[in-house]
Amino acid sequence: MSLLAIILVIVLGIILLLLEFLIFPGFTVFGISGFLAILFGIGSAYYFHGVQTGNYALLITAILSIITLFFVFKQKTWKKIGLESSIVSKNITFDPDQIHEGDSGKTVTRLNPVGKVMVNDVICEAKSISGFINENTEVVVVKVLTTQIIVKPK
Prior knowledge:
Number of strands: 5
Radius of gyration: 31 Å
Helix content: 40-55%
Shape: rod-shaped
Mean pLDDT: 86
Largest sheet: 5 strands, mixed, barrel
Order of helices and strands: HHHHEEEEE
């Protein structure tokens, strides 16, 4: 096996380990394959080119792996590759004395069957008892709960 092939196998192993660390975390095929590729490359250097070349391959692989990990952590590669979305939720509460059964209002968003409704100048979460209700539709309050109201089209 040529030295170029050994170098390529070791580099492929390091790349597979990086994929394991950065993109597919856990104990997956990429990590196992990367580790085996590095072992195979170093073992091939010992077997085909002797102890001295094998020692160099081992030393260079260790140094290259440490430098690669250092730059991955130093350059904040985790943040560049990782997903940075977050879910922001607001729980809109209302005073139960503001809304009563039989009050009229208008949908602010489409009720699928849950959405936002404005009743008595208060925006709150509402649930439709009759399926979907489009935006800007007149509704009537059927029931008032602690966190939402139940409505039907007018």
